[in-house]
Design goal:
Blueprint: H1 2-21, H2 37-64, H3 67-98, H4 107-127, H5 132-160, H6 174-177, H7 184-214
Helix pairs in contact: 1-7, 2-3, 2-5, 2-7, 3-4, 3-5, 3-7, 4-5
Length: 215
């Protein structure tokens, strides 16, 4: 984790600095608000990555019945949902400036909200079961189901219908209208930096979770 922590600090320092100071494409409507891209979208990438790890470890528990994989799965889901909530909040701020409202009937927005609600259900279900063995079995199956539902909700369905988001519903993605790569030079490091941050937080929480369980 040492190298991940160092990489996280370096990349997020660069993201925060370059995200404010570097030039950005002067696109209609978006203008300076396009800088939110460096924070909003990487948070969603981090959420997806962490929830994928949660689902993988849930499957490993189902296969091995080793309780440690259930705890790891729960931990990644917990941190992943935090990043999902931050992704929605930053997206709402951006939407208010670009679309004139904090929330609109957009399939990607609605799909993201439904996906997070599914994971909220995961935590409610898990906390409602007292027996540790049964809790691990039920929540692991639910975790695999939740992730399999999340991907269509935020990646597939928005591409099949009208959507305001770039790259969905016939709208061009950033890679289409950003020919000078002004966004990429900050965006890619931001994605890696936030993923490293998510792994760092998950590692700290997992250590605390193991200490709590020993008590």
């Amino acid at each position: 984790m040492r190298y991940i922590k160092i990489l996280c600090v370096l990349l997020l320092t660069f993201t925060a600095t370059a995200g404010i100071l570097f030039e950005v494409p002067r696109l209609p409507i978006l203008n300076e608000t396009i800088r939110v891209l460096y924070f909003h979208v990487p948070m969603w990438f981090t959420m997806i990555f962490l929830l994928l790890l949660s689902s993988v470890n849930a499957y490993r528990f189902i296969s091995t019945k080793n309780i440690k994989y259930d705890l790891i799965s729960y931990n990644y889901a917990h941190v992943g949902v935090y990043f999902g909530v931050l992704g929605i909040l930053t997206g709402m701020v951006w939407a208010n400036y670009t679309w004139g409202t904090f929330w609109t009937n957009d399939p990607k927005l609605n799909g993201s909200a439904i996906g997070l609600l599914i994971y909220f259900g995961y935590f409610i279900l898990r906390n409602s079961i007292e027996d540790e063995s049964k809790k691990a079995k039920v929540s692991s199956v639910y975790s695999v189901f939740a992730f399999s539902m999340l991907i269509p909700l935020i990646f597939i369905l928005p591409r099949l219908t009208d959507s305001l988001h770039p790259g969905n519903g016939g709208n061009p993605g950033f890679n289409v209208y950003d020919l000078n790569s002004q966004l990429r030079i900050v965006f890619y490091p931001a994605v890696i930096g936030f993923i490293c941050l998510g792994l760092w937080i998950a590692d700290v929480k997992h250590k605390l979770l193991k200490i709590t369980n020993k008590r």
